[in-house]
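Our preliminary data section would be incomplete without showing what the modeling component actually yields. Below, a chain of 360 amino acids is followed by its predicted structure, encoded as tokens that our downstream tools consume directly.
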Amino acid sequence: MNKDIVSEHLRELLKFSAIINSSLEIEEIRKRACEAIMNLVNCEAASLLLFDEQTQELYFDVALGQKADKIKTIRLKLGQGIAGWVAEKRQAVIINDVQSDPRFFKSADEKSGFVTKTMVCLPVMIKDRLLGVIQAINKRNTVFDEYDLELLNALSSQIAVAIENARLYDELKQTFYEIVLALADTIEKRDPYTAGHTKRVMEYSVKTGIELGLEKEDLEKLQLAAILHDIGKIGIRDAILLKEEKLSDEEFKIIQNHSIYGAEILQHVRQLKDIIPGVKYHHEKFDGRGYPFGLKGKEIPIIARIIAVADTFDAMTTDRPYRKGMSREDAIEELKNKAGSQFDPEIVEAFLKVLNKYER
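Predicted structure:
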């Protein structure tokens, strides 16, 4: 093998390894892994099949190349097809006449319209645990050889580490979300009339954010802020928070402090600094007549403007000790009437679209 070619392949391997391991988002890792395979061994298509431990199946989660969108929907049991065989035996294979191989799962080509001619397939493992299988398909202008397998074996190790890191990150994030939800639920249990309020506001908010086209990172901030928007109520005395009669003006001013209390609580957690605006400003009004600071229009962070609509709608449609909740129709009319004054009209419009989609 020409030394220059080997050096080039090593550079490519290092470059793609750095790219693959630069993200903790599993979708990005899968996509970059397939790009790396195709570039490294010069093939027409590549697939990363992940192993579902619960169902004991492999699934094409990402496939690049011709007909990729169809390829990625296929699931294989252990032992089924070449990939299933590789997963079951934990062995890599080079096959330069795929169509005549008895292990070949022809349904994959039939569903995708792609013709698989040659293939390198090898397991992706971390220690002794199977994470998935990678495939390089149809070497351009020649056939696969042992050198291709060596390159992909080195890449497979990097892919395995990246997938495992992403999995651990997801588990940690999920644990964090569960702790946050438990905290919100504990606060909510102080007031039996708000049961389910936090979850509903969170769902309304996230769906509205999706309708507005928010990026994934902003949706995550929105979700956490919606869960914790009332955390400051932990600093409000029960005599006021649980009062069954209408609050006096003085008591209402005390209740208003919960958004400030919430921000003060969250500022001690560095990872939550980006969600503080949603908690602190969700009672601001679009016309500047809200609290605690009288912010106006787009001065109010978008996550706070979204939570304001979701929170108000749920409050209006929920029974309280001193009043019965509005009907869905009346609450919708109230949102429309207050669009431009209390609420951002664009967000009200998106929220109403969400209601039509999910609550018919």
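The domain at 3-167 is CATH 3.30.450.40 (Beta-Lactamase). The mean pLDDT is 87. Preliminary results of this kind motivate Aim 1 of the renewal.
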